[in-house]
Structures are given as C-alpha cells and as structure tokens.
Amino acid sequence: MDLVANLGLGFSVALSASALSYCALGITLGIMIGVLPGIGPLATVGMLLPLTFYAPPTEAIIMLAGIYYGSMYGGSTAAILLNLPGTAGAAVTCLDGHPMAQQGRAGVALFATTLSSFFGGIVGILILAAFAPLLAAIALNFGSPEYFALMCLGLLAAALAGDGSPSRAFAMIILGLMIGCIGTDVNSGVRRYIFGFNHLSDGVNLVVVTTGLFGIAEVIANAGRVNRSRINDLDLRWRSLLPTRDDWRRSVLPAFRGTSIGAALGILPGTGAALSTFVAYACERRVSKSPERFGKGAIEGVVAPESANNAAAQTAFIPTLSLGIPGDAIVAIMLGALIIHGVVPGPRLIADHPELFWGLTVSFLIGNVLLLMLNLPLIGLWVRILRIPYGVLYPAILVFICVGVYSISNSYFDVLLAVVFGAVGYGMRLTRFPTAPLLLGLVLGPLLEQNLRRSMMLSRGDPMIFIERPISGAILACAALLVVLVVAGGIRKRRRARLAALAGS
Q: What is the pLDDT of residue 272?
C-alpha cells in the first residue's frame, strides 16, 4: 500500500505541467545529443547544468535525467546508420546494427533498438522503485564511518572497474579530491590552495569543471573534423521498420538477458551503462548456437546491448538517490546538481524529499513512454541533423558553453578556468587518462572529507573506528578484497603474456 501511495505522489508531481515540460525537453535534447556523434550526454549534462539553477530541484533533476536516458535511445541511431556511436554505450550496437543497415534492414534495427531500450528502461524503473527505498532504509543505520567507507569503496570501484589503467584512474581520483579541497575550509574558515586567486575562495564550481573537461575538450578534439559520411537513400518507411517473425523469436531471450545484466551492473558504482553493453554482447555471443553470425547483422547483437544500456541507465540512480554514491560520471553531475539546490543525497533523501524521489521515478516511466512515441517518428529529423557540418555545430556549442559558465556568477574568471580545464581534458585524452574518475573525486571529495573528520572526532582521533564498527569494517573488507582480486588478475595476465612470449621464442 505504501508503494501505491508513493507512486500516486510521484504521478501527481510528474504529471504537472512544469514537470512534463522539463521531461519532454530533457528527452528531446537527449535523443538529439545521442544521435550527434562526438558530443555525448556527459558533455551535454555538464553544459546544461547552469540552466537548472533557475528551476526547482525536482524539475531540474527530471530534465537532466531525461537527457541521460534519452541519449541512450538516440545513441543507437548514428551507430546503425553511420557506424558512428553517438554514446559510449552505443559502440557495441555498431557491431551488428550497421551491418543490418548495409543489408537494407536499417529500419528493423532501429525498431528493435527502440523496443529493447523501452523494455530495459521499464524494468530498470521497476527495480529502482522497489529497491531504492529498501536500500535507503538499511542505510539509515549508517553513520559517518560507514559513509566514509562506502565512498572509499565507490571511488575504488570507479578506478578498478573501468576499461583503462587502474593506476591512471587512481591518479585522476586523487586529482579530483585535490581540486575538491580548493576553497575555504568549512571547519576553520581558512582559505586553502587558492594560490592568490580570490575567485577560488568558494572552491572550483562543478559546472566549470564539467563544461571544460567534457564540453570544451570535445570541441577541441573535433576542431578539424569534417563530415565524411553521408546518409543516402535509406528505406525508413513504416513497413520497413517491422521485424519478421524470426526476428521476434531471436530477440525475446536476449532482451531479458541484456536487461538483467544491465540492471545488475547499473547498481554498482563506477561501472556505468557502457560496461553493461559489452558484457551483454559477450554473453549473447557465448550462449548463441551460431556465434559466427555476430558481427554480420545478428539482431541479438543489437537487442541485448540496447536493453542492457537502458536498464543500467535507470538502476544507476539507485546508489545515487539512496546512498549518495553516483553510479557513473553523468549521475555524479546530477548528484552535484542536487547539492547545488540544497538537497543532500543519501538515505534521508527519500524521507525528507519524497516528492523529488517519487516524482523523478515516475518521470522515468513517463519519459520512456514519450521516447517510444518520439524516437521512431523522428528518425527522419535525426537523419537530417546528422548532415549538419561540424564546422557549424561545434562553434555554436562553444558559445553556448561560455554563456552558461559566465551566467553562474557573472565572472570572466570562471570562463577562463573552464578553458583551462578544457585544455587539461584534451591533454588527458591524448595521454589516455580517464576524466570520469576525476569528476567522481571532485563530487565526492568534500563529502569524504566531512565524514572522515566527523568520524575522527567521534573516536577522538582513533582510526580503528572504521574497522571496529561492523558495517564500515565489512565495506572496507570488500574494498580490500576488490584490490586483491584486481592485483591477482593483473599478475596472472602478465604471467600468461610472459609464458606466451617464451613459447613463441
């Protein structure tokens, strides 16, 4: 009964005129950004974060969330039609989606991605509504030591679960934590690490960092890019969109398996939706009786990653809203948006702000229905957008970034700082240093410091408080086990490489 009453509250919030408007705006922008290769939802959410300052917290987070899961829908369009993934999660869709387009089955591939995305998203929403309040209720027993341990585990998972070097990810997390320390110390009132710049007394704004690292860096990276691909005569009539009976038969089980994988991995901090797509694709190839079909236009290779992608996009909000731990970098920006609006993410969020949590949850349901209604009819529009020259698109994005950053505090210093972070972000790309761990460190850094200080005050300086308390001790033990497993895996990998080298010689 409580769930029914809570969902009723959510519908009353999400069906308001303002919430519907922000939801529709978010998903429309999300689809558009997903379609456009090279921009991505992370840069877009960072660029549009200043717009949310003038909106109520619920409407603001609804719009940002709409951009997030809307881009998951749209990312598959460019992947299938042009073999250019609009998002990282859509990269796997290229493997079989584009061959289907080359075979004249682009409409079927687009229809399959839309339905599988809708199915995965709906299941993810149901899991969010069922488990997030339960997890939050359990987390009410958490104190500062438990929060500190949980954040350490989240940062560790973000570093170790990525596809790059763990040491580089750790370095970026530390850099993010250091940037988070810039500004005025809350306890002592002492200004620290401002290097003589009084503009840094209030710290480095999250919007400045995100727009620089992701938005400006994208513009710099694509400055010399030209449109080489063209969309020619594709059959995108309604009749061509409908799958055959064999396509339906081949899609059912992959949709269920992909959704299950995405829902499970989306809950884990630091994994993100992209990882779930690779795992789902690998799983389908392994269980298939004809794995040789994959990479040549197998519809299972489209359905499974897309359902996993969107399920993970929904369940990524579970640790964010119930524990205050972002599931990935995009959700971390949303967590920062909540903090900017004075809403503290964590176990008390559902109890203190039920209209926000349940309104957001129901907006996911409404947004997915709207996406199902919009995605297919607007395919023609997205195809035309793909023809916009990059020389026109990216300067417009750069102007939008500068205006958004300046509007935060009417400061040219923030614009210059965003440019600096843009150059840093571009340099990190060239040197293959991941930017997402830096953002996670920046968002969680102040909260990590606060909980560390509170814990040490409670224990009168005794660090054993983190081990003696059962929950924090168990979380830190999980973190230590994770490190051991990753190190052992690395040792085994190097040993196999050494043996292979010796055998080859």
A: 56
299 close to 245: Cβ distance less than 8 angstroms: no
Q: How far apart are CA 356 and CA 389, in angstroms?
A: 40
In this structure, of 194-203, 317-326, 366-375, 376-385, the range with the lowest mean pLDDT score is 376-385
Which spans in 36-105 are helix H? 40-48, 57-82, 93-102
CB 364 within 8 A of CB 314: yes
CB 211 within 8 A of CB 404: yes
- What is the per-residue pLDDT across 426-439, written as a single tens digit (0 to 9) for each? 898 888 887 767 87
Q: Say if CB 14 and CB 20 are below 8 A apart.
A: yes
How far is residue 14 from each of residues 54, 147, 324, 363, measured CA to CA in Å? 18, 31, 22, 5
Q: What are the domain boundaries of the chain?
A: 2-137+149-224+246-458, 465-505
3-state secondary structure at position 85: coil
Q: What is the three-class DSSP state of 59?
A: helix
pTM above 0.70, yes or no: no
pLDDT band for 40, please (50, 70, 90 cuts): low
